[in-house]
Amino acid sequence: MKFRCSNPRLGKYKYFCNDIDRRRTASNQSGRFSLRTGLPAIAPSFTVNKTLQQESQRRGKKKMEGSRPVVKHILLAKFKDDISSERKEQLIRDYANLVSLIEPMKAFQWGTNVSAENLDQGFTHVFESTFESVEGVAEYVAHPAHVEYATEFLACLDKVIVIDYKPTVV
């Protein structure tokens, strides 16, 4: 089944089996076959690669010019062995709820360690909060809702590391 590609930069080469094939074909250096289906690629990859690279550079410049400053607050955690799964889930829900309670906190994400490198030093969970400024992080840390939550959360942890940083756009 073919779908029409909504990307006008690709000109007459606008039919792909799906969006995944389009992206994989665009990155296929041989330019002959789709990595997913093994069928002949519709557009030569060097043409698509060059177009995508130019678009990526254009977007990168736009992001750097018009983006707001961002600060990431990263917390690595290892829960105590006696903390139940249900308790962990509740703590994570409560952490996520801080976004609605503390104005400077703009976003929250979390996940569990999936690294195969065995360099995790026992840390099992990663929590990432996004702020617009270092002052926003300071306001978040001092906020009563955070102080109350942090007291409860830290009591359930065996190990913790917290790092704040400003991402660099390359």
Automatic annotation (TrEMBL):
Q: Which residues form the Stress-response A/B barrel domain?
A: 71-165
| Record-linked InterPro entries | Dabb, Dimeric_a/b-barrel, HS1/DABB1-like
What PROSITE patterns does the entry give? S_R_A_B_BARREL
Which BP terms in the Gene Ontology apply to this protein?
pollen tube adhesion
SUPFAM superfamilies with a match to the protein in the record = Dimeric alpha+beta barrel
Pfam families assigned to the protein according to its UniProt record, in alphabetical order: Dabb (PF07876)
Q: How does it assemble?
A: Homodimer.
The name this protein carries in UniProt is Stress-response A/B barrel domain-containing protein
Q: Give the species.
A: Aristolochia fimbriata
The lineage, from the top, is:
Eukaryota, Viridiplantae, Streptophyta, Embryophyta, Tracheophyta
